[in-house]
Queue: 2 jobs
Job 1
Amino acid sequence: MRIGVLRETKNPPDRRVAIPPVTGLQILNKYPNVSIFIQPSDIRCFTDSEYREQGYFLTDDLRDCDILIGVKEVAMPTLIPNKTYLFFSHVAKKQIYNRELLRQIVKKNITLIDYEYLKDNHNKRLVAFGHWAGVVGAYKALRARGVRTDLFDLPPASLCEDMEEMYLHLKKISLKPIKILITGGGRVAMGAMQTLRVLNLKEVGPEEFLRESFNEPVVCRIDPESYVERKDGRDFNLQDFYNYPEMYQSTFKPFTKVTDLFIACHYWDPKSPKFLSPEDYKEEGFNISVIADVSCDLNGPIASTLRASTIASSFYGYDRFNEEEAIPFVDKRNVTVMAVDNLPGELPRDSSIDFGEALYQNVYEALLADDPDGIIERATIVKEGVLTPRFAYLQDYLEGKDAVIV
């Protein structure tokens, strides 16, 4: 079995890798029948020399490999027919910008396994970068706060060697009394909380956050029961909310009156209520000055997220009265928006090691040896050029006959 580690070809560049040198050595030690070949890259967070020093063979030509592993979407001209690919394909929600990619995968008889759908029997994801999105997103939220107030200056996370260096910078700042709000309770939100805890902030509950004033900075993390309610007045039930999001309405507005910095880390279903409508921003007493939309659902629950931003240009302003993008940090009446959609790419070494370890612990046995639980089968969108039954709903999208997500 030959595994090829692809260089990342998506633009803007992504420096992450699914098999860091240390993880590859674990794979080779456990599976003696496996060989790993590295495609050279001048942007990868682990240099070519780091792989060579560990004994890997580097080659541009991966045509002899059986399985090709990347992180983000693979450039269509580089797709090799009749191979098995693992990467985040972003096609399963009918994203218009990747329809031609799916067509080429089908045309070339490729088998496509998507990381997003590698799940256990309880539908829990086995690998994800979400934790690191939260870690970096909270840091960038604080960086925006510092620029906006001129009280402190944090370097971009992308200029830090790793999380440890990023946190060293964070420990040097001091916040004035502000209220920080985080929505969500999963990996992303926990990553954001990890970053904020570096500052030893006081953590308060939602009622205290809404009702009281503080002479120190505080942070509050809220779950869905604090920002939605059943339309018919019945008691909140989390599973019911997941199953029937259209039956709920937002109760988020009170938080807009007391929050200074909002870090959005929630999962959002298009059928569930929105957090912030354009009208909410215009109301008297609207207090939020910085929104770090880590979830980054475009045309989604947060009206000021007009577009995704980039690692190189992370912030833009939102004119809350004209509903338009503005130059960041110029007019303090505007909301500062951070909506980078590949945040883990700012700490590529840390996030790659974590992701690679999760693959090693949870996936490679199923991929390289035995898969009695059907882990690989559930995550396979296309098998040898044919949509699998689980993803057969993509046929209309593939043929251009269906509505798609922009």
Job 2
Amino acid sequence: MTENEKKLLQAKHRLEEAQMRDRQKEQKTRTRRLIQEGAILEKALPQTTQMTLEQLENFLCEVFKPIR
């Protein structure tokens, strides 16, 4: 393997690592946002804490159903 090939491979690995870090950062940001939104939902509608996920989904779909 030539010196240029080694440098190219190293650059490729650095790029892949940077992309992986970006994906992880985006995932952590999304997770934090979802947790915060869930907390707001529970605070605004405390009865939702006793619902299953299916019940919650049905409740929210019914409440926010588009008016025709």
